[in-house]
Structure formats: C-alpha cells, structure tokens
Design a protein that fits this description.
Dna Ligase, domain 1; five-stranded mixed sheet; 3 domains; globular; four-stranded antiparallel sheet; DNA polymerase, domain 1; alpha+beta; about 425 residues
C-alpha cells in the first residue's frame, strides 16, 4: 500500500500559518518579479482567477474581493515543506519526496490497521505540527494513490482504494487525462479510440496498450489494476546540473550591473553545489534581452571547462565573469542572465590534475566556514563585494512575507498579558 500526501494550496497555506486572519480570505502568490499568479487558495479558484494570469490584469478583482497578495517566498516554503516531510517520517520511515508539496509513503507495514483512520490521524498530525492542511490518497499502487488523492481533495481529505469494486467505481469517474503519466497527446489519442475514463483505459487489452503506448503505457494500466510497478524511491537521484537564473527587476544596460548579477547568481549556485556535496566540471553562463517587446533582441551563451571539478565559489565566479565579458554586447537592454553548473560529481570522489597548484583542502575549509556563518546568521551575512550593494537590478518581490522560520529578526513575537484573578 502507498499513500500520497499532498499539501493543499501549499504556498497560500504557508502564508496562512503565520497570519491566521487570512483564514477564509482569498490568497494568491505571485511569480518572480511579481509577474503572474502561481498559487491560489480555494476562494480565489472560486472567483474564476486562472493560474498564470498576469498580476496587472486582475488588480481590479483584487481590490473588489479583498484578495491578499504575496510575492513568492521560497525560503519560507522550502522550510515549511521540510517540516511536513519530517512529520511524515515520524509515521513511516519510507518517504519519497516527490515535489515541494507532495510525498509518497510506503504503507506496506500498516495493513493490520484501519487505513482510513490512520490516514486521518496522519492528516491531523501534519496540520497540528506544521499548520499545513493535506489530502491523503491510499491505494495498492502509486498511480492509484495519485487518483485517490485527487478525489480526497474534494471529499473529507482521506480516501482509501483497497476494494476492487469501489476502486473501479472511482476510476469510472476519473477522466483518462487525469491519470498520472498520461499527457495531452495520449489523452487526445485515447479519446479518439473511445477511451474516456481511467476505468476504460485499465480495461484495455494488454496487447493493444503495448502496441500503441509501449511498456510505459502498459505499466500504467497495470498500476490502475492494482499491480505495483513503481516502487518507493527514498534515495533522491543525484542532480545532473544546477541552474540559477532570474529575470531582472529592471533592465540591465551596463556590463558592471551584469557582472554584479552573475556574481550573485554564481554565489547561490556554489552554495547549492556544496549543500549537495557535489563539485562541477563545466560552467555555462547565458544572457538574453526581452523577446516580447520592441527592443532589439540578443541572446548568447558560453560553456567553459574548469581545470579541476570544484565547488569553490571564487573559482566559479572567475569563470562566470570571464564568460559574461565574452558574450556581453553593449547597446542592449537585458532582461535575464544566469548560469548552469554541469558534469557534477561527488566531492568525495575528486579527479585531480597533476598540474593543479591550488590548495583544494584549504578552499573547502574556507567555503565550510562561509556556509556555516550564513546558515547560522542568515543568507547574505557574508557575501562577495562583486555582487553589489544596492542591486537595483534585483528581482522585485515587494509583497513578500517575512522569513518567519529562518531569520531571527522575522520570528513572530507573542505578547502575553497577565489577567488579574
């Protein structure tokens, strides 16, 4: 048995945890630079506001309905996600974090329990310990658990599919396009052959599915029939690359400002690299203007190989800035730049160069000290001067909530008043 635990309206729910007055009030969260809607509470969905709609287009609706608007606060959301996942591990050791707001749990050892009651217990504990509401779907396969979760969101928050007749009844109500792994093209293809529901798909002959949809489609059909084909993966696959890229809050028109931005992004990439205990052998930097306005368009990228795979930020900055200088062209209004670290490998298995003269152990010690300070006292406590001070190009997040759980100055303060008896 598998359980899929999915946080409800996750970003909006994170904002509500620390502002209870938002309960029942419509809440939206905006993308980088406060561009468009990327998260909506149920109240916003009921108003008919779609995902991805530009912020400026709905300002009248926001005022009319008193919608609370927030810039994306990924530091807060990431920490709240970690708290939810840690809560799940208190109930089962086999947890696969599928995304920032979803996780699969192996429930194989809980068959002697009433799974519906256990699901409600888990749901209540996550809400009590993290403040985040979740929906839970429990079934014999991960694909069925996905479907159970989708239905649970519209019911009482927990749904168990462990009986064939009930499972088939639910599958008969689920569109084939809502099956995990069935995309738009397959949906159109299946609809063209009269396959409308998940039950229709699960009832197709194996030879027909294998002929038209190959082994992946057949595996999905078996999962819908209650035959597990996708196991819990509690060890996340190592990253193949790390990308840090942001659109600027205002267009960049000078090389100095572009260098500040790439130094800032490279610093972040180096931190992520070390947090994963990885080193990078290649670095690619890129920049682009806005292709959607009337300004002249230009974009370019360059990839460079490091002498030795490294996570030493000053070395990464050296190559990143050299690359930007080579592809930067004067006379353009740049909208975005970024970098990608590639050919990643574990720091524990370095490949040295006999001509390398750098003291790599000293570099690792320096980065460890830097990361320790920033982790303890907050991101950016120590930073590279090359990333700039004022940063007028920085991403706009004028409506961002405080970092309630990761910054000392943002921790909520509670005033207690003693009442006379």
């Amino acid at each position: 048995m598998f359980a899929l635990v999915d946080c409800n309206n996750f970003y909006a729910s994170c904002e509500r945890v620390f502002q209870p007055k938002l309960k029942g009030r419509p809440v939206i969260v905006l993308s980088n630079n406060d561009g468009c809607v990327i998260a909506r509470s149920n109240e916003v969905k009921a108003l008919g506001i779609d995902m991805g709609v530009p912020y400026f287009q709905i300002k009248d609706l926001i005022r009319q309905h008193g919608i609370a608007v927030f810039s994306s606060n990924y530091t807060l959301y990431g920490d709240m996600s970690a708290r939810v996942m840690e809560t799940l591990r208190e109930f089962t050791s086999d947890v696969e974090v599928y995304s920032i707001d979803e996780a699969f749990c192996d429930m194989s050892g809980f068959m002697h329990l009433n799974l519906d009651e256990y699901g409600h217990t888990l749901r209540n504990k996550v809400k009590q310990w993290s403040g985040i509401p979740v929906s839970i779907g429990i079934a014999k396969t991960k694909t069925l658990a996905k479907i159970a979760n989708k239905v649970a969101k519209k019911a009482d928050g927990v749904l168990v599919l462990d009986k064939p007749d009930f499972t088939n009844a639910v599958l008969s109500l689920v569109d084939v396009g809502d099956i995990w792994g069935i995309g738009r093209k397959w949906t159109a293809f299946l609809n063209g052959h009269g396959v409308k529901t998940a039950l229709d798909f699960a009832s197709l002959p194996d030879h027909w599915i294998r002929k038209h949809m190959h082994i992946v489609g057949l595996r999905t059909a078996h999962e819908l029939r209650g035959i597990p084909c996708i196991a819990i993966d509690d060890a996340p696959k190592p990253k193949q690359s790390i990308i840090v890229s942001r659109s600027f809050g205002q267009s960049i028109t000078t090389l100095d400002a572009m260098l500040e931005a790439i130094v800032s992004y490279t610093t972040r990439a180096g931190e992520e690299l070390r947090s994963q205990e990885l080193v990078a052998k290649h670095i690619q930097v890129f920049l682009t203007t806005n292709r959607f306005n009337n300004d002249p368009f230009y974009e370019n990228a360059i990839t460079m190989q490091l002498p030795v795979a490294s996570s030493y930020t000053p070395e990464l900055i050296h190559y990143a800035t050299q690359g930007i200088k080579r592809i930067y062209r004067q006379g353009f209004r740049y909208k975005k730049c970024g970098l990608m670290l590639m050919e990643l490998s574990p720091v524990s298995h370095p490949q040295y160069d006999i001509f390398d003269t750098q003291d790599r152990s000293k570099q690792l010690s320096a980065m460890s000290a830097l990361d320790t300070v920033n982790n303890r006292w907050g991101a950016g406590t120590l930073f590279y001067a090359g990333s700039g001070i004022k940063k007028p190009w920085a991403m706009k997040r004028g409506l961002k909530s405080p970092h309630y759980t990761t910054e000392w100055q943002d921790i909520l303060k509670v005033q207690v008043k003693m009442l006379n008896s």
